[in-house]
Amino acid sequence: xxxxxxxGEGTNGSPRGDRRREALLAELDxxxxxxxxDDISVADLTDAAGITRSAFYFYFDSKAAAVTVLLxxxxxxxxxxxxxxxxxxxxxxxxxxTTLSRx
Length: 103
Prior knowledge:
By secondary structure, this protein is an all-alpha fold.
């Protein structure tokens, strides 16, 4: 089990820990743009992020837990984007397109 449960939301409380966790999430996001999750290994993520495999498991119990954290951040951004949907030019298609581009 990781140092923080399955949510992946905790860090070791240091700025370095925050950077390592964010580097893993950024790399996961980058790789998911071109590769299916099943084809991405933890080793792929940690090698590309320059972080040890054990560090990955400190922050996340699994790839699925890391994806959940990544999706949570997208959901939070989408919630903030509600203003884009409401306060736009009034055209639905334009509002949705603008919101998706920003996400």
